[in-house]
From TrEMBL:
It is found in: Membrane; Mitochondrion. The gene is MCUR1. It holds the Pfam family CCDC90-like. Belongs to the CCDC90 family. The chain crosses the membrane at residues 136-155. GO terms for biological process: calcium import into the mitochondrion; positive regulation of mitochondrial calcium ion concentration. Keywords: Coiled coil, Membrane, Mitochondrion, Transmembrane, Transmembrane helix. GO terms for cellular component: mitochondrial inner membrane. It comes from Columba livia (Rock dove). Residues 36-67 form a coiled coil. InterPro entries: CCDC90-like (IPR024461). This is Mitochondrial calcium uniporter regulator 1, transcript variant X2.
Amino acid sequence: MHWYASWKKMEIALQQVMSHIGGVKKDMIILEKSEFSALRSENEKLKLELQQIKKQVMDEIAKVQADNKLNLNLEKTRVKELYSLNERKLLEMRTEIVELHAQQDRALTQTDRKIDTEVADLKTMLETHKLDNIKYLAGSVFTCLTVALGFYRLWR
């Protein structure tokens, strides 16, 4: 019977150990749950902070994009104005060049007319002098012939 009493003691000790293990298990579960709740709570806080940071970043990105878009639109407008100004200046320069070419053409035409008129005047003057020279030559020939005939009659 001794072994039965030992067995009973062992069974009692085993039940005490099991009950103690059960208590520890309950404590661990409670501790685990409270740590899990703390972790969950911390995780929720981190999620909220992350969402706030994400919102701030998105707001900042939107602000930078808006600023960039505004700057780009201002720059586009400035470039368009410069292009328009350059186009006007180019058109004015083309108009001036066309006017200068027209003035040059008129001056050349007038110069050509003057040259043509002078050449025609010189040709006329040359023809007039030629005719005068022919008249004088003919007169001189007739005069010489008349004098020669006069001498010829005298000596004959």
